[in-house]
Amino acid sequence: MSRSPWSWIPTLYFAEGLPYFIVNTISLVMLKDLGVSNGKLAVLTSFIALPWLFKPLWSPLVDTVKSKRWWTISMQFIIALSVAAVALTLSESSLPVTLFFFAVAAFSSATHDISADGFYMIALDERAQSAFIGIRNTFYRLAMIFGQGVLVFLAGAVEKYAGNAASAWRVTLGFTALMLAALTFYHSSVLPQAESKPDAKTDSGAGLIKNFAVAFASFFTKKGCITAIVFMLFYRFPEALLMKMLYPFFSDTLSAGGLGLDKEAYGLICGSAGVAALLAGGILGGFYIAKHGLLKSLTLMALSLTLPCVVYPYLAFAQPESLWTIGFCVAIDQLGYGFGFTAYVAYMMKFADGPLKTSHYAICTGFMALSAIFPGAIAGYLQEICGYSGFFTLVVMSCAVTFAVTYLALRKSDYLTQ
C-alpha cells in the first residue's frame, strides 16, 4: 500500500532535527546552567557537534550497505538510548561522561541525517521533493523550537520543584528519550518500502573503498563545485554566529547586557511566537520555490534570511522588559529565517542531484555543518570581548557575506535551472 508523504515526512524530519538541537542547543543551555562561561560552552558544544562535519566520510557506507530505511530506524533507536544515557549520567561531577554520550548521540544523528535525506530523495519524485521542502524544513526547525522552547520550559518548571538544574535536566531528557523511542517505533511501521535491495557486491571492504573514492571524486569534479562550496559555507554566516549566543543573551542579567529571562519565559517565547512564525516561513518558502524556481527565488530568500537579525541589536540596546516585545522580535527573525533557509536546502539538493545523490548530499551537509561550527566556536569569545550589543552589531554587518555569496551563486547558476 502506498503511503502518503504526509504520514512520514513531518515526523521523520522532526526526529532528524530533535537530536541535532539536543546536542547543539540543549547541551549549551545545560552547560550555561552549570556555570560554564560563554567562551567555553561555545567551544565545547561546537566540539561535540563535529560528527556533522565529518559525516561525508562514512556516507558511502550508508549509501551502499543495507537500505536507507534500515539505517534511519537503527540510528533513531541508538539516539533514543544515547539521550537516555545522558539523562542517567548527568551531574556536575560527571560532565566528561555526559559529553561522551552527547557525542554518541551526535554521531548517530549525523548518520541518521545521511539516511533520512537519502530516503527522502528516493521515495519522492522531483516535483514532490520541491513541494515538501518547506514541510520538511518546517518540522526540522519545529524540532529546534521544541528543543529550545518546550524542553527548556519543562526543565525550568521542574527545576522549581527539584531544586537544581541537573535534576531538572535528568527528568526532561528522560522524557525526551521516551518520545524518541516512540518515534522510532512509529517509523518502523510507517516508512514506505521505497528501495530495492542493495547489491551484495558493494558490501565488501574493497567495494566500500571504491564507492568512497568515486563519491568524493565525482563531487569535487562537478561543474560549479567551488562556487557551491563557498555558498554552502557562508550563506548562513550571520545565523551561525547568532545561534550559540541566543540563550546566553536571553538568560544573562540586565547588568551583564542580557534580557534576564528565566528558562520558562525563554521556552514560552520560542515555543509560541517562534513556532508560529517558523511554520509560516518554512511552508511559504517551499511553495514559493516550487512555483518560481530556485533561481528566481534566491535573492529574495537571502534578504529574508539576513535582514531580520537587526532585531537583536535592538533587543541588546533597548533591553525591553515586555515579553510581547521580545516575542514579536523573535517571530520576525523566525519568519524570515524559515523562508530564507528553504533556499539553502533546495540549493544543496540541486547540486547533489545525480547517481550518487545520497553521498553528495551528505557531503553538502558536511559543509553546512562546517559553516556553523567555526563561527559558533568563536561566537562566545567575540561576545565576551564586544558585549552583547557589539556582538549583535557585528552579526548585522556580517550579512554582507551572505549577499556576496548569493551574488556569486547566481552568476554560476547553470544547475539551479535544471
What does this structure look like?
The chain is built from 18 helices and no strands. With 418 residues, it is mainly alpha-helical. It has a single domain (7-189, 213-412), classed as Up-down Bundle (Growth Hormone, Chain: A). Helix 13 packs across helix 16 and helix 16 runs antiparallel to helix 17 (357-397). It is globular. The mean pLDDT is 84.
Q: Which features does this protein show?
A:
single chain, Growth Hormone, Chain: A, 18 helices, globular
Helices and strands in order, then pairings?
Elements: H1 9-33, H2 38-47, H3 51-54, H4 59-64, H5 68-89, H6 95-123, H7 126-162, H8 165-190, H9 205-220, H10 225-234, H11 237-242, H12 246-251, H13 263-292, H14 294-306, H15 311-318, H16 323-352, H17 357-397, H18 399-411
Helix pairs in contact: 1-2, 1-6, 1-7, 1-8, 2-17, 5-6, 5-8, 6-17, 7-8, 7-13, 7-16, 10-17, 10-18, 13-14, 13-16, 14-16, 14-18, 15-17, 16-17
Number of E-type strands? 0
Largest sheet: none
Counting structural domains, the number is: 1
Helix content: over 70%
* CATH class placement: Mainly Alpha
What is the structure about, briefly put?
The protein contains 18 helices and no strands.
